[in-house]
Design goal:
Layout: H1 2-8, E1 19-20, H2 23-33, E2 40-43, H3 46-56, E3 60-64, E4 77-80, H4 83-93, E5 97-98, E6 101-102, E7 106-110, E8 114-125, E9 130-136, H5 143-149, E10 154-159, H6 167-176, H7 181-200, E11 203-214, E12 220-222, E13 226-229, H8 238-245, H9 249-256, E14 260-263, E15 268-272, H10 275-287, E16 294-297, H11 304-315, E17 322-328, H12 334-347, E18 354-359, H13 363-372, E19 376-378, H14 381-396
Parallel strand pairs: 15-17, 17-18, 18-19
Antiparallel strand pairs: 1-13, 2-7, 3-4, 3-7, 5-6, 8-9, 8-11, 9-10, 11-12, 11-13, 14-16
Helix pairs in contact: 3-4, 6-7, 11-12, 12-13
Bound molecules: guanosine-5'-diphosphate (GDP) and manganese (II) ion.
Amino acid sequence: MVILFYIHRPRPRKRFFGMKIHEYQARELFRNEGIPLPSGSLCGTPEEAKRSAEEIGKPVVVKAQILVAGRGKAGGVKMAQNPSEAYEIAKNLLGAVIKGIRVDSVLVVEAVKSQKELYLGFTVDRARRKIALIASSEGGIDLEELARTKPEKIFRREINPIIGLHHFEARDAAFSIGLSEKNANEFTSICLKIYNIFKSIDADLVESNPLAISSTTGSLVALDARITLDDNAMFRHPEYKQMDEELAPLEREAQQQGLAFVQLDGDIGIIGNGAGLVMATLDVVAYFGGKPANFLDMGGGSRADDVHKAVKICLEQQNLKAVFVNILGGITKCDEVAIGLVRALSESKVKVPFTVRMVGTNEEQGRKILAEYKIEYLDSMETAAQSVVKLAHEARS
Ligand code: GDP
Ligand code: MN
């Protein structure tokens, strides 16, 4: 009995991309450390957004709280001149789908006029086993984009995690990005504070982009706060659990069902058995020009029921254009996969094309079932990836 119980217990969730937390949660950590931030509050309804804007009494920025970068460009960050505009914007944003993710709450913050937008962040450089301090005088755009367009504008310095960040290292960064004495002092102080957060919560990434120079005060203020935690450190951070509970409902639902699921920002659903295989599937889809919507590992030995659950979770994502199921049969039997898949599809109202690649145990039986239901079946991973990318492309246009 004990053994059976153990086998049926949901697998603990494995995450491979770190645990992102919301901007409002990251701001909380910034605030506790004394980093200057525009005032604001989290709102779940347009009425709350209006009230919040009234309290601030100045133009505000309404920001969708979703766990993806680049919200600004995707229409998730909007300026409101007055409370009724804040109401309208919040009304449009709440419930809307941005980069494939539904907006459940918005942050309403005082709008700050900035004379300059900087970048400041710390991240783990695993290959070199160091922490990287990254700074730039050209903030406000993605670091990846900056790296592509103006790599010379990126200041990077390795910090020895055992020794910690020295004051002079932070100052050096400030002057390297051309700050005045006054701003350099502020920058140094913020840098040390962000580093403290980074160390104390075992983060993978802590960044402020933009860290702005306000044109009214001439001082630095963090207009954005982004943190990714290292979930390997989960065991020593009881506070992670609290933050986790506030995260994406779909991820939580998947976790409760024992599935390793991570939401990404593309539109091609990915399901596989085994973390390595799912990772490889993401890569091959990206290689052929597709954008994965998620990472979903059903684990080894999945039965029809597990497959059924996984497909249902996957189909709950908004904005899906196609789904790629990639199975290496071993202890997982291909006919079980086919049965679970067909069952989930027949129950679902969502109609998106599926491409299945399955090889291994009971492949023939599985293939027959899929053929009956006219589900595309291919036996090469590359061909299947190309096909799903094409299907998604056709669905988009
Ligand atoms: P992200 O796109 O997800 O990184 O969201 P951000 O919080 O960085 O907001 C996107 C962009 O909106 C920023 O890069 C800023 O240029 C701009 N922005 C955000 N808040 C303010 C603000 O208070 N004042 C001004 N002027 N711009 C802001
Ligand atoms: Mn930003």
